[in-house]
Amino acid sequence: MKKWYILFLCIILISLNQVYAECKNNEINLNGSCLDPINTVISAEKNLFRVNEINRVTISADNLLNVDLNIKLTLNIETGASLNGVISGSDCSGNQCTGVMILPAKSRKSISVDIKGESYGNVELKSIISSKTNGKDYLKQESISVIIINPGDGLCSVGETPRNACNDCGCPKDQDFYSYQCNKENSCEKVLNWFVHLSIRGAIAIILFLLSLVWYFVIRKAPNYFNKKAELYLSRENERKKVVSALYKIQNEIDLNNPPQLDYVIKKLNLEGDEDLIHGEYMALLDKLEEGRRKLADSNSVKTTGSSIDKLMKFVKAELELGYSKDDIIKRARWNNWNDSEIEKAFQEVGIIEAKRTPSINVKN
After folding, report:
1. Domain locations in the chain?
2. Distance (Å) of CA 193 to CA 162, 163, 178, 190, 201
3. E strands, the chain, in order
4. For residue 336, what is the DSSP state?
5. pLDDT, tens digit (0-9, with 9 covering 90-100), for 49-80
6. How many other CB atoms sit within 10 Å of the CB of residue 28?
7. pTM, two decimal places
8. Fold for domain 37-149?
9. Are the CB atoms for 94 and 156 separated by under 8 Å?
10. What whole-number distance in Å separates Cα of residue 190 and Cα of residue 52?
11. What would you report as the CA-atom Rg of the chain, rounded to the nearest whole angstrom?
């Protein structure tokens, strides 16, 4: 029982010690708990800037309590930068700015100033916030460092790199296809090497030359080329038609058992032009006449049991399939001893009053 009493007493003493314990300098004792009543933030627009360049610094204070607080905000600027202008919420003298204000419960207030870089190096900016809460002095400090560079002074100091101070720190080594040059902004700029420029320009020149050839031969010359081809084809076709028409006039005079020589035919018809074309059309005519004679022989070999008019009808049909005109068929039928009445009847039986087809002769290559 005694042990439990001692343990209970120790717990009470520890609790009382926590309630009445002394809080840290930046904390207050509120209902037995140590709290940080104000949250502070110090910030700069640029963590790195140049000599004579302006940079804006802001200190913000947040009241985390449910009561208003009287606070004093102070900004100290170390050597290397100077105050350039007050933006809001403070009175400044030298390198120190101070603002006294009431910070409402659960709210934020800020002071902003512009500083100017004076010399290169690290510059510390320190904010101090003081207040008196619950009869206790409250003090809180925050600080940040900014870097000031001075490109062009010949020293590659802290914060200077080839990107922001190439005159002091130099540029990287040249690569295979490009090199680095220090531009007016004191920054290394990547530049293609001369032979890469030359290669690109050469490639562009070749492409333009090829395009000009395409334009000249395809767009400008191609229509003329195809027109000439078309004209040549039409000219040869017209010549072929003339040869076919001339040969057609003498087809009934040709003895297939002893056809005339080509020279005789050319001379007889007074043909002019491509001799190969004439020869091809003449041979095509002989082949067609030979085919007609064969079919005629086949039609004459019909069995004798058939009537004479049936043989004549088959003959007429065969001749019509070969493309002969009615007059030519009548002549051939007469040569085979059919009379005009039989011939006319045969035409009527096959339903042909007037045969309008004429033989066409294909060019044989």
Report:
1. 1-35, 37-149, 240-349
2. 19, 20, 5, 10, 13
3. 28-30, 33-35, 38-44, 48-50, 54-63, 69-77, 81-88, 91-93, 96-103, 108-117, 121-133, 136-149, 178-182, 188-192
4. T
5. 999 999 999 988 898 888 888 888 888 888 88
6. 22
7. 0.47
8. Immunoglobulin-like (2.60.40)
9. no
10. 28
11. 58
